[in-house]
Amino acid sequence: MLTYNFEERKNCPLYEFLYQKMKEDILQGNLKANERLPSKRSLARHLEISVITVENAYAQLMMEGYIYSKEKSGYYVSELALQLPAEPGKKDVPLQEEETISTEYFLDLKNNSVPTENFPFTVWSRLMRRVLADREIRLLERVPPQGALELRKAISDHLYQFRGMNVEPGRIIVGAGTEYLYGLLIQLLGREEIYGVENPGYRKISQVYRCQGVTCEYIPMDFQGLSVKALRDSKVTVLHISPGHHFPTGIVMPIKRRQELLCWAKERGGRYIIEDDYDSELRFQGRPIQTLQSIDEEEKVIYINTFSKTMTPSIRISYIVLPRHLMERYQAKLSFYACTVPSFEQYTLARFIREGYFEQHINRMRNYYRTLRDEMVQAIEDSRLRGRMLIQEQNSGLHFLLQVKTRKSDDEIRLCAQRQGIRLDCLSQYYEGTGREYEHCLVINYSGVDRKRIQEGIRRLERIFQDEE
Q: pTM (2 decimals)?
Protein backbone atom coordinates (compact mmCIF):
# COMPACT_ATOMS: atom_id res chain seq x y z
CA MET A 1 0.00 0.00 0.00
CA LEU A 2 1.25 3.51 -0.86
CA THR A 3 2.53 5.41 2.18
CA TYR A 4 3.51 9.10 2.31
CA ASN A 5 4.55 11.45 5.11
CA PHE A 6 2.04 14.29 5.03
CA GLU A 7 4.12 16.32 7.51
CA GLU A 8 6.38 17.23 4.56
CA ARG A 9 3.60 19.01 2.69
CA LYS A 10 3.83 22.29 4.70
CA ASN A 11 1.27 24.66 3.12
CA CYS A 12 0.60 22.46 0.08
CA PRO A 13 -3.05 21.24 -0.21
CA LEU A 14 -3.51 17.55 0.67
CA TYR A 15 -4.72 16.42 -2.75
CA GLU A 16 -1.89 18.30 -4.51
CA PHE A 17 0.74 16.77 -2.21
CA LEU A 18 -0.64 13.27 -2.86
CA TYR A 19 -0.73 13.95 -6.61
CA GLN A 20 2.91 15.16 -6.58
CA LYS A 21 4.17 12.15 -4.59
CA MET A 22 2.38 9.64 -6.79
CA LYS A 23 3.61 11.38 -9.94
CA GLU A 24 7.21 11.16 -8.63
CA ASP A 25 6.76 7.45 -7.95
CA ILE A 26 5.47 6.91 -11.49
CA LEU A 27 8.29 8.92 -13.14
CA GLN A 28 10.98 7.18 -11.06
CA GLY A 29 9.58 3.73 -11.78
CA ASN A 30 8.51 2.95 -8.22
CA LEU A 31 5.03 2.43 -9.66
CA LYS A 32 5.36 0.24 -12.75
CA ALA A 33 3.48 0.58 -16.03
CA ASN A 34 0.04 -1.07 -15.93
CA GLU A 35 0.33 -1.65 -12.18
CA ARG A 36 -3.04 -1.50 -10.43
CA LEU A 37 -3.44 1.31 -7.91
CA PRO A 38 -5.33 1.03 -4.60
CA SER A 39 -8.99 1.92 -4.70
CA LYS A 40 -9.92 5.42 -3.57
CA ARG A 41 -11.56 4.19 -0.38
CA SER A 42 -8.79 1.81 0.64
CA LEU A 43 -6.05 4.41 0.01
CA ALA A 44 -8.01 7.07 1.90
CA ARG A 45 -8.46 4.69 4.84
CA HIS A 46 -4.76 3.75 4.82
CA LEU A 47 -3.52 7.36 4.67
CA GLU A 48 -6.24 8.58 7.05
CA ILE A 49 -7.46 11.26 4.63
CA SER A 50 -10.80 11.84 2.94
CA VAL A 51 -11.96 9.95 -0.15
CA ILE A 52 -12.50 13.32 -1.88
CA THR A 53 -8.77 14.11 -1.44
CA VAL A 54 -7.76 10.83 -3.12
CA GLU A 55 -10.38 11.31 -5.82
CA ASN A 56 -9.01 14.79 -6.67
CA ALA A 57 -5.43 13.49 -6.81
CA TYR A 58 -6.44 10.57 -9.08
CA ALA A 59 -8.44 12.94 -11.31
CA GLN A 60 -5.42 15.21 -11.80
CA LEU A 61 -3.10 12.26 -12.54
CA MET A 62 -5.59 10.85 -15.05
CA MET A 63 -6.12 14.21 -16.74
CA GLU A 64 -2.34 14.53 -17.27
CA GLY A 65 -2.06 10.95 -18.53
CA TYR A 66 -0.07 9.40 -15.69
CA ILE A 67 -2.81 6.88 -14.87
CA TYR A 68 -5.85 5.42 -16.64
CA SER A 69 -9.03 3.72 -15.48
CA LYS A 70 -10.77 0.51 -16.44
CA GLU A 71 -14.48 0.24 -15.98
CA LYS A 72 -15.37 -1.86 -12.90
CA SER A 73 -11.70 -2.62 -12.42
CA GLY A 74 -9.99 0.46 -11.02
CA TYR A 75 -7.02 2.71 -11.79
CA TYR A 76 -3.73 1.68 -13.42
CA VAL A 77 -0.33 3.31 -14.09
CA SER A 78 0.13 4.47 -17.68
CA GLU A 79 3.06 3.35 -19.79
CA LEU A 80 5.36 6.37 -20.33
CA ALA A 81 7.94 7.00 -23.05
CA LEU A 82 10.53 8.19 -20.52
CA GLN A 83 11.03 7.46 -16.86
CA LEU A 84 13.55 8.91 -14.45
CA PRO A 85 15.79 6.46 -12.59
CA ALA A 86 15.17 6.36 -8.88
CA GLU A 87 17.93 8.08 -6.88
CA PRO A 88 17.46 7.34 -3.18
CA GLY A 89 18.26 10.22 -0.89
CA LYS A 90 18.33 12.81 -3.65
CA LYS A 91 16.40 15.97 -2.92
CA ASP A 92 15.72 19.02 -5.02
CA VAL A 93 18.03 21.85 -4.05
CA PRO A 94 16.14 25.15 -4.01
CA LEU A 95 17.63 27.92 -6.10
CA GLN A 96 19.36 30.52 -4.01
CA GLU A 97 17.77 33.91 -4.44
CA GLU A 98 20.14 36.68 -5.42
CA GLU A 99 20.59 39.40 -2.82
CA THR A 100 21.00 43.03 -3.71
CA ILE A 101 24.23 43.29 -1.74
CA SER A 102 25.55 40.07 -0.26
CA THR A 103 27.78 41.78 2.32
CA GLU A 104 26.95 44.64 4.65
CA TYR A 105 29.55 47.37 4.16
CA PHE A 106 30.17 50.28 6.49
CA LEU A 107 30.69 52.57 3.46
CA ASP A 108 29.48 51.50 0.03
CA LEU A 109 31.22 53.55 -2.66
CA LYS A 110 30.24 51.20 -5.48
CA ASN A 111 26.48 51.11 -5.18
CA ASN A 112 24.99 53.99 -7.20
CA SER A 113 21.36 53.48 -6.22
CA VAL A 114 19.07 56.38 -5.37
CA PRO A 115 18.34 56.66 -1.61
CA THR A 116 14.72 55.69 -1.00
CA GLU A 117 14.17 58.37 1.65
CA ASN A 118 14.43 61.03 -1.07
CA PHE A 119 11.65 59.59 -3.21
CA PRO A 120 8.54 61.85 -3.21
CA PHE A 121 6.18 59.20 -1.84
CA THR A 122 3.45 61.63 -0.78
CA VAL A 123 3.17 63.30 -4.19
CA TRP A 124 3.52 60.04 -6.09
CA SER A 125 0.80 58.26 -4.08
CA ARG A 126 -1.54 61.24 -4.49
CA LEU A 127 -1.03 61.23 -8.26
CA MET A 128 -1.61 57.47 -8.38
CA ARG A 129 -4.97 57.90 -6.62
CA ARG A 130 -5.94 60.65 -9.05
CA VAL A 131 -4.97 58.53 -12.06
CA LEU A 132 -6.99 55.64 -10.67
CA ALA A 133 -10.01 57.87 -10.07
CA ASP A 134 -9.84 59.72 -13.39
CA ARG A 135 -9.06 56.89 -15.78
CA GLU A 136 -10.78 53.97 -14.02
CA ILE A 137 -11.46 51.20 -16.54
CA ARG A 138 -9.35 52.89 -19.22
CA LEU A 139 -6.28 51.82 -17.24
CA LEU A 140 -7.05 48.28 -18.39
CA GLU A 141 -6.89 49.26 -22.04
CA ARG A 142 -3.78 48.43 -24.01
CA VAL A 143 -1.42 51.38 -24.55
CA PRO A 144 0.26 51.97 -27.95
CA PRO A 145 3.51 50.04 -28.61
CA GLN A 146 5.52 53.27 -28.28
CA GLY A 147 4.01 54.01 -24.87
CA ALA A 148 1.12 56.13 -23.63
CA LEU A 149 0.74 59.30 -25.69
CA GLU A 150 0.22 61.32 -22.49
CA LEU A 151 3.67 60.30 -21.21
CA ARG A 152 5.37 60.83 -24.57
CA LYS A 153 3.92 64.35 -24.74
CA ALA A 154 5.20 65.06 -21.23
CA ILE A 155 8.68 63.78 -22.16
CA SER A 156 8.63 65.85 -25.35
CA ASP A 157 7.80 69.03 -23.39
CA HIS A 158 10.46 68.25 -20.78
CA LEU A 159 13.15 67.73 -23.43
CA TYR A 160 12.25 71.02 -25.09
CA GLN A 161 12.21 73.06 -21.89
CA PHE A 162 15.25 71.58 -20.15
CA ARG A 163 17.42 70.06 -22.88
CA GLY A 164 16.64 72.33 -25.84
CA MET A 165 15.48 69.40 -27.97
CA ASN A 166 12.61 69.83 -30.41
CA VAL A 167 11.19 66.30 -30.45
CA GLU A 168 7.68 65.24 -31.47
CA PRO A 169 5.96 62.63 -29.25
CA GLY A 170 5.66 60.39 -32.30
CA ARG A 171 9.44 59.86 -32.34
CA ILE A 172 9.61 58.65 -28.72
CA ILE A 173 9.49 55.01 -27.60
CA VAL A 174 8.99 54.17 -23.92
CA GLY A 175 10.42 50.94 -22.52
CA ALA A 176 11.13 49.14 -19.25
CA GLY A 177 14.78 50.03 -18.72
CA THR A 178 17.66 50.90 -21.01
CA GLU A 179 18.74 47.26 -21.37
CA TYR A 180 15.43 46.46 -23.08
CA LEU A 181 15.82 49.48 -25.36
CA TYR A 182 19.39 48.46 -26.30
CA GLY A 183 17.98 45.16 -27.51
CA LEU A 184 15.23 46.94 -29.44
CA LEU A 185 17.82 49.12 -31.19
CA ILE A 186 19.83 46.05 -32.19
CA GLN A 187 16.75 44.58 -33.86
CA LEU A 188 16.04 47.92 -35.52
CA LEU A 189 19.57 48.63 -36.80
CA GLY A 190 20.60 45.03 -37.47
CA ARG A 191 22.80 42.37 -35.88
CA GLU A 192 25.25 42.52 -38.76
CA GLU A 193 26.36 46.01 -37.71
CA ILE A 194 29.51 46.46 -35.61
CA TYR A 195 28.78 48.30 -32.37
CA GLY A 196 31.42 50.51 -30.75
CA VAL A 197 31.57 51.31 -27.02
CA GLU A 198 33.80 53.57 -24.95
CA ASN A 199 36.88 52.09 -23.27
CA PRO A 200 36.89 52.52 -20.31
CA GLY A 201 33.14 52.53 -20.05
CA TYR A 202 30.02 51.19 -18.42
CA ARG A 203 30.49 47.44 -18.72
CA LYS A 204 26.81 46.51 -18.85
CA ILE A 205 26.45 48.14 -22.30
CA SER A 206 28.98 45.82 -23.94
CA GLN A 207 27.59 42.86 -21.98
CA VAL A 208 24.11 43.48 -23.37
CA TYR A 209 25.42 43.83 -26.92
CA ARG A 210 27.46 40.62 -26.70
CA CYS A 211 24.55 38.69 -25.18
CA GLN A 212 22.43 39.87 -28.09
CA GLY A 213 24.95 38.20 -30.43
CA VAL A 214 26.40 41.29 -32.12
CA THR A 215 30.05 42.21 -32.72
CA CYS A 216 31.25 44.82 -30.25
CA GLU A 217 34.51 46.84 -30.46
CA TYR A 218 36.10 48.85 -27.65
CA ILE A 219 37.18 52.35 -28.72
CA PRO A 220 39.76 54.06 -26.46
CA MET A 221 39.26 57.44 -24.79
CA ASP A 222 41.50 60.49 -24.60
CA PHE A 223 41.18 63.59 -22.41
CA GLN A 224 38.31 64.94 -24.60
CA GLY A 225 36.32 61.75 -24.82
CA LEU A 226 36.16 58.97 -27.39
CA SER A 227 39.13 59.02 -29.80
CA VAL A 228 38.00 59.90 -33.33
CA LYS A 229 41.25 58.53 -34.80
CA ALA A 230 40.71 55.16 -33.14
CA LEU A 231 37.08 55.21 -34.31
CA ARG A 232 38.15 55.79 -37.91
CA ASP A 233 40.67 52.95 -37.66
CA SER A 234 37.90 50.58 -36.51
CA LYS A 235 35.08 48.88 -38.42
CA VAL A 236 32.37 50.34 -36.17
CA THR A 237 29.10 51.38 -37.81
CA VAL A 238 26.99 52.06 -34.69
CA LEU A 239 28.64 54.05 -31.89
CA HIS A 240 27.32 54.09 -28.31
CA ILE A 241 28.62 57.04 -26.27
CA SER A 242 27.77 59.26 -23.28
CA PRO A 243 29.10 62.70 -24.30
CA GLY A 244 27.23 64.69 -21.63
CA HIS A 245 28.98 62.97 -18.74
CA HIS A 246 31.05 59.88 -19.38
CA PHE A 247 31.05 57.05 -16.88
CA PRO A 248 33.42 56.39 -15.21
CA THR A 249 35.93 59.11 -16.22
CA GLY A 250 33.44 61.99 -15.86
CA ILE A 251 34.66 63.63 -19.10
CA VAL A 252 32.29 66.12 -20.76
CA MET A 253 32.90 65.98 -24.49
CA PRO A 254 33.69 69.43 -26.02
CA ILE A 255 31.75 70.71 -29.02
CA LYS A 256 34.62 70.19 -31.49
CA ARG A 257 34.83 66.49 -30.67
CA ARG A 258 31.05 66.16 -30.97
CA GLN A 259 31.15 67.76 -34.41
CA GLU A 260 33.94 65.38 -35.46
CA LEU A 261 31.80 62.41 -34.44
CA LEU A 262 28.83 63.76 -36.38
CA CYS A 263 31.09 64.15 -39.43
CA TRP A 264 32.15 60.52 -39.06
CA ALA A 265 28.50 59.41 -38.87
CA LYS A 266 27.35 61.27 -41.98
CA GLU A 267 30.28 60.15 -44.16
CA ARG A 268 28.68 56.79 -44.83
CA GLY A 269 25.15 55.45 -44.93
CA GLY A 270 24.14 53.12 -42.12
CA ARG A 271 26.30 54.82 -39.48
CA TYR A 272 24.54 55.94 -36.29
CA ILE A 273 25.42 57.36 -32.88
CA ILE A 274 23.51 56.26 -29.79
CA GLU A 275 23.69 59.16 -27.31
CA ASP A 276 23.28 57.83 -23.77
CA ASP A 277 22.29 60.83 -21.63
CA TYR A 278 21.63 58.87 -18.44
CA ASP A 279 22.37 61.49 -15.72
CA SER A 280 22.31 64.77 -17.62
CA GLU A 281 19.90 66.42 -15.15
CA LEU A 282 22.36 66.12 -12.25
CA ARG A 283 24.92 68.71 -13.33
CA PHE A 284 26.06 70.96 -10.47
CA GLN A 285 27.63 73.90 -12.33
CA GLY A 286 26.17 75.83 -15.27
CA ARG A 287 23.42 74.71 -17.60
CA PRO A 288 23.05 71.13 -18.82
CA ILE A 289 25.38 70.39 -21.72
CA GLN A 290 23.76 70.65 -25.17
CA THR A 291 22.87 67.21 -26.50
CA LEU A 292 24.44 65.72 -29.59
CA GLN A 293 20.93 65.06 -30.89
CA SER A 294 20.04 68.75 -30.86
CA ILE A 295 22.95 69.66 -33.20
CA ASP A 296 22.46 66.67 -35.50
CA GLU A 297 21.18 67.83 -38.90
CA GLU A 298 21.57 64.52 -40.74
CA GLU A 299 19.35 62.34 -38.49
CA LYS A 300 22.28 60.23 -37.34
CA VAL A 301 21.76 60.42 -33.57
CA ILE A 302 19.53 58.15 -31.46
CA TYR A 303 18.92 59.69 -28.03
CA ILE A 304 18.34 57.48 -24.98
CA ASN A 305 17.62 58.41 -21.36
CA THR A 306 16.08 56.95 -18.22
CA PHE A 307 14.14 57.99 -15.13
CA SER A 308 15.85 55.31 -13.04
CA LYS A 309 18.73 57.60 -12.10
CA THR A 310 16.68 60.67 -11.20
CA MET A 311 13.65 58.93 -9.64
CA THR A 312 14.40 55.39 -8.47
CA PRO A 313 15.67 52.24 -10.27
CA SER A 314 12.42 50.41 -9.46
CA ILE A 315 10.45 52.79 -11.71
CA ARG A 316 12.07 51.09 -14.75
CA ILE A 317 10.92 53.68 -17.28
CA SER A 318 13.34 54.68 -20.02
CA TYR A 319 12.88 56.09 -23.50
CA ILE A 320 14.56 56.61 -26.85
CA VAL A 321 14.14 59.33 -29.46
CA LEU A 322 14.52 58.05 -33.02
CA PRO A 323 15.21 59.97 -36.23
CA ARG A 324 12.12 60.11 -38.42
CA HIS A 325 13.27 57.49 -40.94
CA LEU A 326 14.17 55.06 -38.17
CA MET A 327 10.77 55.57 -36.55
CA GLU A 328 9.18 54.65 -39.87
CA ARG A 329 11.34 51.52 -39.92
CA TYR A 330 10.32 50.72 -36.33
CA GLN A 331 6.61 51.08 -37.14
CA ALA A 332 6.96 48.81 -40.17
CA LYS A 333 9.18 46.20 -38.49
CA LEU A 334 8.79 46.20 -34.71
CA SER A 335 5.50 47.85 -33.77
CA PHE A 336 4.00 44.42 -33.05
CA TYR A 337 5.82 44.49 -29.69
CA ALA A 338 3.63 45.48 -26.75
CA CYS A 339 4.83 48.32 -24.53
CA THR A 340 6.75 46.86 -21.59
CA VAL A 341 5.78 49.53 -19.02
CA PRO A 342 2.45 49.25 -17.13
CA SER A 343 -0.01 51.96 -18.15
CA PHE A 344 -0.69 52.92 -14.50
CA GLU A 345 2.95 53.94 -13.99
CA GLN A 346 3.09 55.75 -17.33
CA TYR A 347 0.07 57.93 -16.59
CA THR A 348 1.34 58.68 -13.08
CA LEU A 349 4.77 59.71 -14.37
CA ALA A 350 3.16 61.83 -17.09
CA ARG A 351 1.29 63.87 -14.46
CA PHE A 352 4.40 64.01 -12.26
CA ILE A 353 6.26 65.68 -15.14
CA ARG A 354 3.42 67.81 -16.50
CA GLU A 355 2.47 69.31 -13.12
CA GLY A 356 6.02 70.39 -12.33
CA TYR A 357 6.83 67.82 -9.65
CA PHE A 358 9.65 66.27 -11.68
CA GLU A 359 11.43 69.63 -11.98
CA GLN A 360 11.02 70.21 -8.24
CA HIS A 361 12.34 66.72 -7.52
CA ILE A 362 15.37 67.23 -9.78
CA ASN A 363 16.21 70.55 -8.10
CA ARG A 364 15.86 68.96 -4.66
CA MET A 365 18.02 65.96 -5.63
CA ARG A 366 20.63 68.20 -7.24
CA ASN A 367 20.96 70.19 -4.01
CA TYR A 368 21.06 66.99 -1.95
CA TYR A 369 23.78 65.39 -4.06
CA ARG A 370 25.79 68.62 -4.20
CA THR A 371 25.78 68.76 -0.40
CA LEU A 372 26.67 65.08 -0.16
CA ARG A 373 29.53 65.49 -2.65
CA ASP A 374 30.85 68.57 -0.84
CA GLU A 375 30.87 66.73 2.48
CA MET A 376 32.73 63.80 0.91
CA VAL A 377 35.29 66.08 -0.76
CA GLN A 378 35.77 68.15 2.40
CA ALA A 379 36.30 65.04 4.52
CA ILE A 380 39.00 63.86 2.10
CA GLU A 381 40.71 67.26 2.02
CA ASP A 382 40.71 67.45 5.82
CA SER A 383 42.20 63.97 6.16
CA ARG A 384 45.75 62.64 5.91
CA LEU A 385 44.86 61.59 2.36
CA ARG A 386 45.05 65.18 1.12
CA GLY A 387 48.66 65.00 -0.05
CA ARG A 388 48.21 61.51 -1.47
CA MET A 389 45.03 61.91 -3.51
CA LEU A 390 43.82 64.12 -6.37
CA ILE A 391 40.06 64.60 -6.83
CA GLN A 392 38.90 64.70 -10.47
CA GLU A 393 35.66 65.29 -12.40
CA GLN A 394 33.31 66.26 -9.57
CA ASN A 395 30.94 68.79 -11.13
CA SER A 396 28.32 66.46 -12.58
CA GLY A 397 26.90 63.01 -12.11
CA LEU A 398 26.86 60.97 -8.92
CA HIS A 399 30.50 59.97 -8.77
CA PHE A 400 34.00 61.42 -8.91
CA LEU A 401 37.51 60.03 -9.36
CA LEU A 402 40.20 59.85 -6.71
CA GLN A 403 43.73 59.49 -8.08
CA VAL A 404 45.99 57.86 -5.45
CA LYS A 405 49.77 57.91 -5.01
CA THR A 406 50.48 54.39 -3.84
CA ARG A 407 52.65 51.33 -4.41
CA LYS A 408 49.66 49.03 -3.96
CA SER A 409 48.01 47.41 -6.96
CA ASP A 410 44.34 48.05 -7.66
CA ASP A 411 43.47 44.54 -6.47
CA GLU A 412 45.34 45.16 -3.21
CA ILE A 413 43.53 48.48 -2.73
CA ARG A 414 40.12 46.84 -3.15
CA LEU A 415 41.04 43.96 -0.83
CA CYS A 416 42.34 46.32 1.86
CA ALA A 417 39.22 48.45 1.48
CA GLN A 418 37.01 45.39 1.91
CA ARG A 419 38.82 44.56 5.15
CA GLN A 420 37.99 48.06 6.36
CA GLY A 421 34.33 47.59 5.48
CA ILE A 422 34.53 49.76 2.35
CA ARG A 423 33.20 48.67 -1.03
CA LEU A 424 34.68 50.46 -4.04
CA ASP A 425 35.77 50.07 -7.66
CA CYS A 426 38.93 51.16 -9.43
CA LEU A 427 38.91 52.85 -12.83
CA SER A 428 40.99 50.02 -14.32
CA GLN A 429 38.06 47.64 -13.77
CA TYR A 430 36.13 49.49 -16.46
CA TYR A 431 38.91 49.20 -19.02
CA GLU A 432 39.09 46.33 -21.48
CA GLY A 433 42.80 45.59 -21.80
CA THR A 434 45.91 46.55 -19.86
CA GLY A 435 45.87 50.33 -19.72
CA ARG A 436 48.33 51.34 -16.99
CA GLU A 437 47.22 54.97 -17.23
CA TYR A 438 43.97 53.98 -15.50
CA GLU A 439 45.60 52.37 -12.45
CA HIS A 440 45.52 53.79 -8.90
CA CYS A 441 42.32 55.72 -9.56
CA LEU A 442 39.27 55.09 -7.37
CA VAL A 443 35.71 55.52 -8.65
CA ILE A 444 33.74 57.10 -5.79
CA ASN A 445 29.99 56.53 -6.22
CA TYR A 446 28.49 58.58 -3.41
CA SER A 447 24.76 58.58 -4.24
CA GLY A 448 23.90 55.88 -1.70
CA VAL A 449 26.30 56.99 1.06
CA ASP A 450 24.94 57.51 4.58
CA ARG A 451 26.03 61.05 5.53
CA LYS A 452 26.49 59.99 9.16
CA ARG A 453 29.21 57.55 8.09
CA ILE A 454 31.32 59.86 5.92
CA GLN A 455 33.87 60.94 8.56
CA GLU A 456 34.48 57.44 9.90
CA GLY A 457 34.48 56.05 6.36
CA ILE A 458 37.28 58.40 5.27
CA ARG A 459 39.26 57.46 8.40
CA ARG A 460 38.96 53.84 7.35
CA LEU A 461 40.08 54.81 3.84
CA GLU A 462 43.17 56.41 5.38
CA ARG A 463 44.15 53.10 7.02
CA ILE A 464 44.49 51.43 3.62
CA PHE A 465 47.56 53.55 2.87
CA GLN A 466 48.91 54.24 6.36
CA ASP A 467 51.76 51.73 5.97
CA GLU A 468 53.13 53.87 3.09
CA GLU A 469 53.36 57.10 5.06
A: 0.80
